[in-house]
Amino acid sequence: MKLGLYSITYLGIWYRGEALTLPEVIKTAKRFGYDGIEIDGKRPHGNPMDWPTRRCRDLRSLAEAEGIEIHAVAANNDFSCPAPEVREAQICYLRELIRMTADLGASNLRVFLAWWGITRHPKLATYDIMENLWPVVHQNFSAEEIWGWCRDALVECARYAGEAGITLALQNHRPVIRDYPDVLRMVKEADSPYLKVCLDAPLMLDKSARAMREAAHAIGSLQVLSHFGGEFERLPEGGIRGYERNDGVVGTETRQYYLDFARAMREIGYQGYISYELCHQLPLINGQTVGIEFADENAELAARFMRAIIQEPGQEAP
Fold first, then answer.
1. Other Cβ atoms within 10 Å of 3 Cβ, number
2. CATH ID of 2-311, from 3.10.20.740, 3.20.20.150, 3.20.20.10, 3.90.180.10
């Protein structure tokens, strides 16, 4: 696998401080040893309203000069809203992102079925408000009705993707999707060669080695993109520890399940990107949310951590 840096890490919403510009994200990716970047499809990074074709091509040239590939764009779309006007606006957003993805020379556009969104209050981000609102908006509609809205929108967008030569990568991300079998079901129902899969290990309900292998082999050649996350720290003996943070509390260590995931990806012959994302509420130090230096340290350690995972003895293809 190749290593990507997902620009949401530097969007300026999780840490104290301003966002990096996309040229700065490219230079940061190169400095920390990444192979490419994935651009988040919202302001201040990748909203397509801000990226006409000429500007996309200029950024693509800058990335190529730095030896960094723009390998994907990430949509923050929600096809699940009961209001058809909202769904139509989301289809329009995705169609413009498809155009932007092609202009940037990227192959894949990561998509959701549904997405509750984030809020900034007053500046730092939180999922809580919109995540709590989502069930209220959808409470009078059946799961199958919501699924149908999502499928219809995705089928239309897959057609636009095909016209542009872009692949949509459906992520195993809540809310409508519970786990990877739902992703496979939607890909089958949408029935488009331009809709494939973005399987992320941290989002799987079962992170055992057996589950990782079963998921990988079920998805097989449909896998075109992946992500990893969490936080990292240097160990006294020189290694790097990766861990999840849940509700502000340090939780599960991630090394073993990423090893299992990498092994499963090798078994199915996946050689695409796995992008690092720092996209959760960050710790407080002396009563203040950490600054951009926290994102820098984690982005650097994440690249070293995952590079070691990929190159771990025993990760060779069978």
1. 21
2. 3.20.20.150
